[in-house]
């Protein structure tokens, strides 16, 4: 009676295993990952049948299906898990019977005897190709966004040489922390390169200037003075003037003008 119930339980478990997506396995710890058991899902996963892989051993999961570039990494991860007596999780690529390469995720662990020797490995393999494609697409979009942001920053901080030893920097939009850093990164080398004696920073197009950003402008002015360039802040609106006054710092030799035209004239005064 007990033997019959045991067989029925095993039959039920095997039937459930065959219903799962992916493949359950039991294998040996060798480079071929010699399979002693595979659920029926291996056929949909790889294109190979249980008979070919387990019964006939016509193909090896380890050397025929896992792509060559990933084989060493898979081996290292599994051996590390066995040494630590812990489960492993790994993502790698397999080559299906039809030649298509697919990403899979595997989780497994070793089964050890009472004396501590390894008996076999058990685990589960699931295809994750759709997830990998989505991640790759997201990565491409993030890279493209980063590239466009870099281009926008470059365009939003142009340095124009309008006359000998005179540079003009028109600022448009919002002056943020990242643009503050970009200003220093771009302007100080430009002052040296063009041997600038005058630097006109036109803020007519700025929509917002926070106190921290205004303080950064003051630091930029001081850095420019150290490099021998005098600064004129043009296009100063009342709201910006209030922010600058609120900083309660000495503006040193910073001169201001209502417009870029006035600033250029002030340079010659």
List keywords for this structure.
single chain; 269 residues; alpha/beta; Beta-Lactamase; Transcription Regulator spoIIAA; 2 domains; rod-shaped; PAS domain S-box-containing protein; PAC; PAS-assoc_C
- Biggest β-sheet, characterized? 5 strands, antiparallel
- Average pLDDT over all residues: 82
Looking at CATH, the homologous superfamily of the largest domain is PAS domain
User: What form results from the Cα inertia axes?
Assistant: rod-shaped
The top-level CATH class of the largest domain is Alpha Beta
Instruction: Report the structural category.
Output: alpha/beta
Taken as a percent bin, the fraction of beta residues is 25-35%
CATH fold-type name of the largest domain: Beta-Lactamase
CATH architecture of the largest domain: 2-Layer Sandwich
Distance between the termini: 110 Å
What gyration radius follows from the Cα positions, in whole Å?
Answer: 34 Å
Helix content: 40-55%
Uncertain runs with pLDDT below 50, 5 residues or more?
A: 5-13
Side by side, the strands of the main sheet go 2-1-5-4-3
Number of domains: 2
Model description:
There is one protein chain. With 269 residues, the chain is α/β, with parallel strands linked by helices. It has two domains: 128 residues, Beta-Lactamase; 115 residues, STAS domain (Transcription Regulator spoIIAA, 2-Layer Sandwich), CATH 3.30.750.24. The chain contains ten helices and ten strands. About 3% of the residues have low confidence.
């Amino acid at each position: 009676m007990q033997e019959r119930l045991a067989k029925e339980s095993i039959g039920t478990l095997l039937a459930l295993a065959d219903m799962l997506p992916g493949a359950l396995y039991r294998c040996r710890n060798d480079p071929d990952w010699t399979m002693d058991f595979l659920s029926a899902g291996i056929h949909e996963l790889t294109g190979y049948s249980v008979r070919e892989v387990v019964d006939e051993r016509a193909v090896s999961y380890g050397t025929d299906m896992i792509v060559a570039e990933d084989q060493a990494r898979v081996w290292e991860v599994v051996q590390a898990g066995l040494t630590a007596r812990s489960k492993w999780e790994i993502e790698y690529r397999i080559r299906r019977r039809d030649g298509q390469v697919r990403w899979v995720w595997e989780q497994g662990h070793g089964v050890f005897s009472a004396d501590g020797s390894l008996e076999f490995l058990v685990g589960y393999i699931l295809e994750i190709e759709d997830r990998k494609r989505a991640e790759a697409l997201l990565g491409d979009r993030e890279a493209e966004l980063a590239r466009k942001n870099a281009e926008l920053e470059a365009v939003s901080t142009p340095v124009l040489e309008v006359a000998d030893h005179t540079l003009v920097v028109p600022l448009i939009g919002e002056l943020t922390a990242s643009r503050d850093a970009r200003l220093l990164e771009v302007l100080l080398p430009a002052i040296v390169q063009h041997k600038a004696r005058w630097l006109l920073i036109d803020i007519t197009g700025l929509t917002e200037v926070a106190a921290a950003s205004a303080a950064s402008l003051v630091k930029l002015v001081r850095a420019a003075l150290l490099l021998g360039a005098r600064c004129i802040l043009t296009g100063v609106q009342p709201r910006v003037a209030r922010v600058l006054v609120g900083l309660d710092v000495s503006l040193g030799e910073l001169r201001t003008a209502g417009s870029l035209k006035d600033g250029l004239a002030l340079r010659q005064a």
